[in-house]
Design brief:
This protein has 12 helices and 21 strands. The strands form 3 sheets. Strands 4, 14, 15, 16, 17, 18, 19, 20 and 21 form a 9-stranded mixed sheet that branches. An 8-stranded parallel β-barrel has the order 5-6-7-8-9-11-12-13, surrounded by 4 helices. The protein has 417 residues and is an alpha/beta fold. It folds into 2 domains: 4-32 and 280-408, Lyase, Ornithine Decarboxylase, Chain A, domain 1 (Beta Barrel); 95-274, Alanine racemase (TIM Barrel, Alpha-Beta Barrel), CATH 3.20.20.10.
């Protein structure tokens, strides 16, 4: 986060005061640092070179086409979970031969779009899905490259809502059923088995769950290869965490070197799908104080950004550091920082010690570059906010703020209403 720094008590993004950007684009808004994105890209990219790897950025983390375009120009591919994400990736310049398509509910139309776009492979989550892909591929005269997403039943030690590798989760195929799934897929005339996939969850801060999962998957890999099935790609997903508060996640190089030891002897390519790790600490959410409220037993700072803009605190009770853009002296108070949404869950931070916060002050919510704007909505008929990208001493609006007209642009009143 050292591209978001204080200079004489004022927060800067690279070489520009955040206050200056706010005065020109209004609040609330998301603000991203290109220098931070580049640094995170370089660290992960260099670390991944210890293996024969392909890196496919997880589009769901931050899907703005300006962010995607930067990563694709640097040679990365995309991990997608919808037809809309594939559309975004193509518009942003992705090499479709570096696109992997995950997710449990791919529709026929989405499968056809992906086949016609000639993506690298589908990460298949059930036998029902592989039968559907086979049918769609046959209908349009294509051969579908697939891998099966295998559920290793490893506890990722993360929030239950972002755990994906336990047997109770909706994702993947039970590892006990994996060999049968591969054998059945081999019988399908429009399917080309090329890979094996595993993803155990998001925001992991320990290396041991990764090692456990890769060890289990490696044993399965050897059994599949012994059956004469050529596994060209081993997709290990993403999941490496970032620092929101006091977390100490492993460095990508530690992760890669650990995996390399476990996979000794595998000569195919390894696919990684980082998302939060790249985008998370590259962005902040900037919001303005509307007023303070003293409810007697509780004090509130009410801001113009709400849970529709940044959902993570309400959804996961997630922690984001919140700091005034201009540091001031004053009495320290314990407050809840809340938005204008008509929900008790509408908060950005609870029991935070703030000092000197007044009406009109700007607050910066850190570590908001991933799962921030991409999870936002128009709830309470609030226009979605602007997104801004900084490069040294210049900034660009990479998504304009929605207007009230945008809210109803697609709606129609029928004649009989």
């Amino acid at each position: 986060m050292n591209d978001f720094i204080f200079k004489e008590n004022e927060l800067y993004c690279e070489d520009i005061p955040v206050r200056e950007i706010a005065s020109k684009v209004g609040t609330p808004f998301y603000l991203y640092s290109l220098a931070t994105l580049k640094r995170h890209f370089n660290v992960f990219n260099e670390s991944s070179k210890v293996l024969n790897s392909i890196v496919c950025y997880s589009v769901k983390a931050n899907s703005n086409i300006a962010i995607l375009n930067f990563l694709f120009k640097m040679g990365w591919g995309a991990d997608i979970v919808s037809g809309g994400e594939l559309f975004r990736a193509i518009k942003a310049g992705v090499d479709t031969k570096k696109v992997v398509y995950s997710g449990v509910g791919k529709t026929e139309a989405e499968i056809e779009f992906a086949l016609k776009s000639d993506i690298l492979m589908f990460n298949v989550e059930s036998l029902a899905e592989v039968f559907l892909i086979d049918k769609v591929a046959g209908k349009i005269g294509k051969k579908a490259r697939i891998s099966f997403r295998i559920n290793p039943n490893v506890d990722p030690k993360t929030h239950p809502y972002i755990s994906t590798g336990l047997k109770k989760n909706k994702f993947g195929i039970n590892i006990k059923q994996a060999l049968v799934a591969y054998e059945k897929a081999e019988e399908l005339s429009n399917i080309d088995i090329v890979g094996l996939d595993c993803h155990i969850g998001s925001q992991l801060t320990e290396i041991s769950p990764f090692n456990d999962a890769v060890g289990i998957i490696n044993k399965l890999l050897l059994k599949i290869i012994a059956k004469g099935i050529n596994i060209k790609y081993l997709d290990l997903g993403g999941g490496l965490g970032i620092t929101y508060e006091n977390e100490m996640p492993p460095h990508p190089s530690t992760y890669m070197n650990s995996i390399k030891k476990i996979l000794a002897g595998y000569d195919g390519q390894v696919i990684f799908e980082p998302g939060r790790l790249i985008a998370g600490n590259s962005g902040i959410f900037v919001t303005k104080v509307i007023h303070n409220k003293d409810a007697g037993s509780k004090k509130f700072v009410i801001v113009d950004g709400g849970m529709n803009d940044l959902l993570r605190p309400a959804l996961y009770d997630a922690y984001h550091e919140i700091i005034p853009v201009i540091k001031k002296s004053g009495a320290k108070l314990k407050v809840d920082i809340v938005g204008p949404i008509c929900e008790s869950a509408d908060f950005l931070g609870k029991d935070r010690v703030m000092n000197g916060v007044e009406e009109g002050d700007l607050l910066a919510v850190f570590s908001a570059g991933a799962y921030g704007f991409s999870m936002s909505s128009n709830y309470n008929s609030r226009p979605r906010v602007a997104e801004v990208l900084v490069d040294k001493d210049r900034f660009s609006l990479i998504r304009r703020r929605e207007t009230y007209e945008d809210l109803i642009d697609k709606e129609i009143i029928p004649d009989y209403a």
